[in-house]
Amino acid sequence: METLTETQNxxxxxxxxxxxxxxxxxxxxxxxxxxLKVRQRLSQEKPFAGIKIGLALHITxxxxxxxxxxxxxxxxxAIASCNPLSTQDDIAAALAEENVKVFGYKGETDEDYYxxxxxxxxxxxxxxxxxxxxxxxIIHQKYPHLIPNIIGGAEETTTGVIRLKAMEADGALKYPxxxxxxxxxxxxxxxxxxxxxxTFDGILRASNVIVAGKTVVVVGYGNCGKGVAKRAQGMDANxxxxxxxxxxxxxxxxxxxxxxxxAEACKxxxxxxxxxxxxxxxxxxxxxxxxxxxxxxxxxxxxxxxxVAGMKERATGVKRVRPFLDEFTMPSGNRIYLCAEGRxxxxxxxxxxxxxxMSMSFMNQCFAAEFLLKNRGQLEPKVxxxxxxxxxxxxxLQLEAMNxxxxxxxxxxxxxxxxxxxxx
Length: 424
Description:
Largest sheet: 9 strands, mixed
Strand order of the largest sheet: 1-2-5-4-3-6-7-8-17
Strand content: 15-25%
CATH superfamily of the largest domain: Adenosylhomocysteinase-like
Number of strands: 17
Structural class: alpha/beta
């Protein structure tokens, strides 16, 4: 049983790690200038005063900067991890010392994972912020009496948004949610640039294999898959894409990648990365046909994309060969190497997305919370997207943080763009 530092307000691995956590938070803040500008405004306006915000996010240094920003805006914050392997224990300790209600440690048991989510829910949050929709789901299933006091929520991920839209379609969603993932400054930055870089960071920390000359199979060509395929190509890999969506497959083919069914790709790949948000996209019968030494990783969301349980049942032997790398010996004698137990490889085996990328995502989270408060009581229980001007504001703040300047339209150009009667 894990030995933890536990009080009424926090459960962390070791509170003595807080000093290192503060150093890592300072390092992240150095790269998150856009979010710090939002913090400066929020600290003056205090829009979250008297508001309880419950978060289920990866407890990383970047999320710590978001938490500090919301606290600066007046919020009472409680946070649990949205993944059993993604918590950075020093960050959790540092937040606990800053009087944040924080529940999480790296390597959580399933029991603790759900206990910590319920700890956040029991604070009776007015706004929920999810990465994968677990808070929303548990509240609707077990704590529906809290819903009248919930102003709304926000969702960080593609997977979560898909599930929320399914809830909305079924008439099951009982409070409004902002799909932060659907903002351009989130899914066209975080999903492509962040996932592309951090996925290989995790795979390389777990395995230290060379990518150049290898065949990398990218399972799913959404924005995350696009980012991973491009990074693999940039590292001199041969890239194969598998897809079920005709347009996404067409994009992959037109981007210069080979496209084929997984039934063929499973025999050719050296490194496999799943990025679909779906279940068993690498199944047992695929694993049994893989090359000896194939490396398999998930960078989608939940640990169901790879049928890990099925692989364990079929394997003649399973052993851990490195901290985040397990060897499965299949009946053929071929060995398959699974990264991070099939959980998010970029967060379990590495540190998640770079801080600069998360600055943009978390600016959107702050704006989502403000949007919900400004429209309190006026939003139906549906999934919403932030207005376009918020994407522009995030972009402007990020460009300023990067010291990048752009042109502005002249009055003549503005007039032309808003008229129809001037000919060619």
